[in-house]
Every structure is written in C-alpha cells, then in structure tokens.
Design goal:
Family: Belongs to the DNA polymerase type-Y family.
Keywords: Cytoplasm, DNA damage, DNA repair, DNA replication, DNA-binding, DNA-directed DNA polymerase, Magnesium, Metal-binding, Mutator protein, Nucleotidyltransferase, Transferase
Subcellular location: Cytoplasm
Radius of gyration: 23 Å
CATH superfamily of the largest domain: DNA polymerase, Y-family, little finger domain
Number of strands: 12
Strand order of the largest sheet: 5-6-1-7-8
CATH class of the largest domain: Alpha Beta
Distance between the termini: 49 Å
CATH topology of the largest domain: Dna Ligase, domain 1
Protein name: DNA polymerase IV
Number of helices: 14
Largest sheet: 5 strands, mixed
Number of domains: 4
Catalytic activity: DNA(n) + a 2'-deoxyribonucleoside 5'-triphosphate = DNA(n+1) + diphosphate
Oligomer: single chain
Structural class: alpha+beta
Shape: globular
Order of helices and strands: EHEEHHEHEEHEHEHHHHHEHEEHEH
Strand content: 15-25%
CATH architecture of the largest domain: 2-Layer Sandwich
C-alpha cells in the first residue's frame, strides 16, 4: 500500500523586523535599513531589508561591520513588542488552515495541510491565500514553499523571495534536489560543506554516488541523514509542540568587564532578568540545571552548569567564579540560564541528588 503524499508548506515573512518598521514608517522604504544593536556596543544585525543586503549585510553580522559596508545604513533598535503583535496575527492566520503548525520563529512556520479541506485541499492555493491574508492583515509580504516534505518546502520558500511562492511537486523532488549545492542540505554548515567540497561533492547529485557506509565513515551518524537528504527524503513530522530546552539571558559589555569582582557585581541584574523570563515561560517547575556562560575578551567561551531545581544567586556566583578562573581575563559577555526537563524527570532527579551545586559540565570551546 502506497504511503499518502504529504502536503507541507513552509512560510516566512520577508525580512520580518525590517518589514514591520517599513510598514510603520513608509519613508524608510527604498533605503538600506537594518534592525539591530548599536555599533559602539558590540551590537549585531537581527535582520535587514534587501537594499541593505545588496551591500553584503546579513543577519548576525556585527553592526560595526555593517556600517563600514554601508555608511548610509539606517540602523534601528528592535521593537520586540511590536513584532510579537504582528507574530500573533500571522500565527492565527496559519492556524486557520490546519492545527499542524510548527513555529520556527516569530514569523516562520511549517504547516502540514495534507488533511485540510480549505481551498479545495490544494496546498498551493492555501499558500497563496495565506500570503494574501498576511499582506492584507499585517501589511507585510511573505514567501512560501510547497512540497511533500519539510526539507524541500524550506528550500522552496527561498526560491522566489521576496514575496514569492514556489511549488515542488512529488515527481519533481528528485531532479530539484539533485541540482542543489550540498551547502543547502539541512544541518550542513560551512565546515561540513567545505569538507564535502574537498571530498569532491559539490551538488546533491555528486553525493548520491556515495554509499551509506562511506558517508558514515566521513561524517559519523550524520552520514545517514546526508544519504537521505541528498535524495530528497525527509520523514520528519510537522510538530505543533516544540519542547523548550532552556531559558537564559545574556549581555555583551563595552568595555570588557575587567575582573571577577566586576563580573559578580553584574550578576544580580542578570539574575533578575532570568527570573522574569522563567516566570513568563511558565517553567518554574521544570528547572533541573543551572548554568553560567562566559565569553572572554579573546572570544574563548566556557559554560559551567550544575544540578539545581530552583535558581538562586549563590549558586550562580559559584558557577561564575568557576568559569572565570578557567581563563582569568577580561570578559565581553556574561549569561545565566536554566536547563529544563519534564516534571516527572525533575521529580525523579531530586530524589537522588546529593549535591545540587557540583559542577558537571566541561568548558565549551
């Protein structure tokens, strides 16, 4: 018996934060615009419009570098509450068509519309209608990809950006994926892509000549994933409930924090921010570890964590001291957070924990 073909839509808005800003202030349109932190405070770019991208600016780029690339860049600080309002409107539109919506960010999601009866059951018509409604309701454009699985739908949504739609039919998947460069594969970053290229695999078609054993020899367990993806195979389900693994807050400091006492002096503010985030996430009863993250002036980074079921300032102070002593130099970033588990796991752990403040994690390179 043949498995029914799934209908998956990947939809996300075009340069979301920047689009909201241009919607609210039309005079910003047509000018290079970015949303992000200030260059003099080690800020980074959250997103930018297409005029800014023409200068080579992209998300996660240091704002100082972005301004060098484009001296006329308009840099606006993020207005998160405004973006969350738009996000709620967008997610409500997605959920009008199916309960199987897997959010990936404020504006981006996978939708499984295989069983939807809207638009005569046509995934393409549903995607067109969603894009139209987002524009009419929220005032910004969105792009969508339609395909039989998440991997191909995600790539398809980028195909006709901005304000575009691209469909990959089931019978087109094989040829569509074969022509893709290996760097497009889900989970392949710069390092893995460079290794694949060095080994002679430039496209997914090249990669198909490798056996499963060869891929696993070079890439370990990820080899099996590569074997499937280069053939357009992706069985992942659209999962409406994505389990949250942690809650944290961090700050980058200018100038660098000089020593341990100065770091400890900043801890109460970070701790207060963390408690607020834990409360807003409703995660008070799910905490099973506490952690501190430190990035030193030479960009070396370390994380220290311990078993713990409720945040407390004394534990974070001990973790911070342990982490700082690993390098004993000025610090550019400090973060504090908690790891989360389900209630049953947390309760079981608490029965056996003897020392809730024993560091259990090695430094992260």
């Amino acid at each position: 018996m043949n498995t029914p073909v799934r209908k998956i839509i990947h939809c996300d808005c075009d340069c979301f934060y920047a689009s909201v800003e241009m919607r609210d202030n039309p005079s910003l349109r047509g000018r290079p615009l970015a949303v992000g932190g200030r260059p003099d405070q080690r800020g980074v770019i959250a997103t930018c419009n297409y005029e800014a991208r023409a200068y080579g600016i992209h998300s996660a780029m240091p704002s100082s570098q972005a301004v060098k690339l484009c001296p006329d860049l308009l840099l606006i600080p993020p207005a998160m509450e405004k973006y969350r309002v738009a996000s709620r409107q967008i997610m409500e539109i997605y959920r009008d068509y199916t309960e199987l919506v897997e959010p990936l960010s404020l504006d981006e999601a996978y939708l499984d519309v295989s069983a939807s009866t809207r638009c005569k059951g046509s995934a393409t018509l549903i995607a067109q209608e969603i894009r139209r409604r987002i524009f009419e309701t929220v005032g910004i454009t969105a792009s969508a990809g339609v395909a039989p699985n998440k991997f191909v739908a995600k790539i398809a949504s980028d195909w006709n950006k901005p304000d575009g739609l691209f469909l990959v039919r089931p019978e087109e998947v094989d040829a569509f994926v074969a022509a893709l460069p290996v760097k497009k594969l889900f989970g392949v970053g710069k390092v893995t892509a460079a290794k694949l290229n060095k080994l002679g695999a430039q496209t997914c078609a090249d990669l198909r000549g490798w056996t499963m054993q060869e891929l696993q020899h070079h890439f370990g367990s990820f080899g099996a994933r590569l074997h499937d993806l280069c053939r357009g195979i992706d069985q992942r389900e659209v999962s409406p409930s994505r389990e949250r693994k942690s809650v944290s807050t961090e700050e980058t400091y200018t100038p660098d924090v000089p020593d341990l006492p100065a770091c400890l002096a900043l801890l109460p503010d970070l701790y207060g921010q963390l408690l607020g985030r834990i409360k807003r996430a409703g995660a008070e009863r799910l905490v099973n570890k506490l952690f501190v993250k430190i990035k030193f002036s030479d960009f070396q980074q370390t994380t220290v964590e311990c078993v713990g079921y409720a945040p407390n300032l004394a534990s974070y102070a001990r973790l911070m001291e342990t982490g700082w002593l690993r390098a004993s130099r000025p610090v550019r970033l400090l973060g504090v957070g908690v790891r989360l588990g389900d209630t049953e796991t947390v309760e079981q752990l608490s029965l056996f924990a003897q020392d809730s403040e024993t560091p259990i994690a090695a430094p992260v390179p």
